[in-house]
Amino acid sequence: MSFSLEGKAFAVIGGSGFNQFPELNIHETSVIETPYGLSAPAVFGTLSGSDVVFLPRHGDGHALPPHRINYRANMWALHSVGVAAVLSVNAVGGIRSDMQPGSLVLPDQIIDYTYGREHTYFTGDEAGVEHIDFTEPFDPSWRSALIHLAERNQHELIAGGVYGCAQGPRLETAAEIKRFERDGCDLIGMTVMPEAALARELNLPYASLSVVVNWAAGLSPGAITLEAIYQQLESSIEDVKSFVEAFARSVGDSPPP
Ligand code: HPA
Fold first, then answer.
1. Which among 66, 119, 197, 240 counts the fewest CB atoms within 10 Å?
2. Which atom in ligand 1 lies closest to the alpha carbon of residue 189?
């Protein structure tokens, strides 16, 4: 693995249906105070010998819709506790024909359709102005390490894809999905932005493990039901956890440098 955590913890950001991680050997849970307000409760623990910080982005009880999440506080908190990398778990709708419900995808690109979110630390004046490079929105070597791990463990993972980030909280119209497809989106979700850009502003390696929980609007007959989404999430989150556990184990197994 060319990517090294250098003995530090890695973070997992939990999304819809993944607000708790009871498999962690939990040492402490704390809400972290940041210059941007309070983070979601960060859970510090170990998993298969590796240090993990688990942060459910919507809060404990999925209290916050995607546009009201304090992304700046969450990412600042993870940076301030010194994690080496962030694996963000995002529930999404599938657009590309091979990204059916149940698929796990590690996207490599983003198109951002969100608006009105606090999306940068560089707000001018004392905070300064900086234009980060975002050509590759997900950290390439962190992604490669995860892809490599999936191959080694025969975890089914689709490597690559364009994540369209919609504002929500409503789901899309069928016409919007056709437009996103014409734009080149393979997946549609609501939470990867501004998270990915904030991670880059903090120089924090970031990748998204996108969990396809439904066909995007208009791609299957009838309405999308929350019931079906939650049913899919329940089984997919088990796959996500086993992926994270395998990663934790592989970190624990690495010989010291
Ligand atoms: N659209 C946007 N966000 C989502 C979807 C969807 O279809 N499914 C899960 N998150």
1. 119
2. 3
Higher local confidence (pLDDT), 81 or 127: 81
- Whole-prediction pTM value? 0.95
Atom of ligand 1 nearest to the CA of 172: 1
SS3 call for 63: coil
Which two three-digit tokens encode residue 160?
């690559």
Per-residue pLDDT at 171: 97
Ligand 1 pocket mutation pick from 89, 112, 179, 188 by most atoms within 8 angstroms of CB: 188
What pLDDT, on a 0 to 100 scale, did the predictor assign at position 13? 98
- Ligand 1 pocket test target in 171, 186, 209 with most atoms within 8 Å of CB: 171
**With bands split at pLDDT 50, 70 and 90, how would you rate the model's confidence at 256?**
very low
Q: Which residues contact 39 (CB under 8 A, 6 or more apart)?
A: 31, 32, 33, 55, 70, 73, 74, 76, 77, 78
